[in-house]
Amino acid sequence: MIRLKLDIEDNLPFFKALIEAVGERLIELMQRDLERKDAIATGYLYRSFKIKAEGLDGKVINEAPYSAVLEFGCVPHTPPYDAILKWVMIKKGEVGEEAETAAWRVLKKIEREAYEGRFYARDSLRELVRRGGGRL
Asked: How many CB atoms lie within 10 A of CB 10?
C-alpha cells in the first residue's frame, strides 16, 4: 500500500490548478449542453462562465443576468419585452412587425405558463461526477 500525505498549505498551487481544471471541464460540458439543448441565442450566456478559485474553494459562475432563469426556469411573470424581442429577432430570425408579434406571443405564454428550466448546469455536473466514478 502507498500512503500519500500532502501538506495543504505547501501544495495550494497544486490544489488551485486542480480546482481550475475541474472548473474548465465543467464549463465545457455546460457549453456543450447549451448547444445540444438549442439554448443559445446571442451567445452571451455561453461566453459568461468564469472560474473563481481561492485556496481550496472553487466556484463556476455565470455573469449573464438570466443564467438562473435558463437553468431553473421561473414562475409566471411578465418578462422584459425588449429582451424577448431581441431573442426573437436573433433566435428566430424575424424582424419588424413579425418579430413584435412573435415577441408578444412568447411574453404572454411566459405570463400564463412560466418557463421551464433547461438544467444545463445540473445535468453537466452530474455527467462530470459520473465520469469521475461518482454519483450525485
From this structure: 8
**8 Å CB contact between 136 and 129:** yes
Let me know how long the chain is.
136
Q: Which three cell numbers stand for residue 44?
A: 452571451
Grid coordinates of 98: 413579425
Task: Judge whether 27 and 120 are in contact, CB under 8 Å.
Answer: no
Q: Is the pTM of this model over 0.90?
A: no
Grid cell at residue 18: 486542480
- Interatomic CA distance for residues 107 and 69, integer angstroms: 14
Output the furthest CA–CA distance in the chain (Å, rounded): 72
Beta bridge mates, 58: 53
Return the SS3 of 115: strand
Q: Tens-of-pLDDT digits for all 136 residues of the chain?
A: 778 777 888 888 888 999 999 999 999 999 999 999 999 988 999 999 999 988 888 999 999 999 999 999 999 999 999 999 999 999 989 999 999 999 999 999 999 999 999 999 999 999 999 998 888 7
